[in-house]
Amino acid sequence: MNNKILGNLGENIASEYLKNSGYKIIKKNFKCKIGEIDIIAKYKNTIYFIEVKTRTSTKYGVPAESVNFYKQTKIIKVAQFYLSQNPIFDNLPIGFDVIEIYINKYNYEFVKINHIKDAFTLWF
Questions:
Q1: For residue range 70-106, what is the model confidence (pLDDT) as tens digits?
Q2: What is the DSSP string of 26-92?
């Protein structure tokens, strides 16, 4: 299974998890010239920009470790662009979450999910 297929599988699992947890999915795979956000969702009165990381092992660290300062900066810039294009969300608080999805590397079945709420914040 290549990384694109694995990533799509993880994003689908994360979307179902979020729906079952009461989130409303606003947009999946929002892309612009700056970059991409995996999932944009609303929960209660907050808009969340969610990065999904799917792995079959922790050999090179846990998935959230790959959401480094550079990646966080890019996600924040894409979120700011999205909000500038969607003024209906102007007065709502925002959050940045990371969802780790663990998949069995032998049969590609879902193993575990870890939702890291407010994994990072808007700092500029």
A1: 999 999 999 999 999 999 888 899 999 999 999 998 8
A2: EEEEEE-SS-EEEEEEEETTEEEEEEEEEES--TT--GGGGS-HHHHHHHHHHHHHHHHH-GGGTTS
Q: How far apart are CA 124 and CA 111, in angstroms?
A: 36
Tell me the residue type at 7: G
CA angle 78, 83, 89 (to 5 degrees): 145
Range of the domain at 100: 3-120
Q: Is the dihedral of CA 100, 61, 103, 8 positive or negative?
A: positive
Q: Could you tell me the CATH number of the domain that includes residue 19?
A: 3.40.1350.10
Number of domains observed in the structure of the chain: 1
Evaluate if pTM is beyond 0.90: yes
Report the C-alpha gap between 48 and 22 in whole angstroms: 13
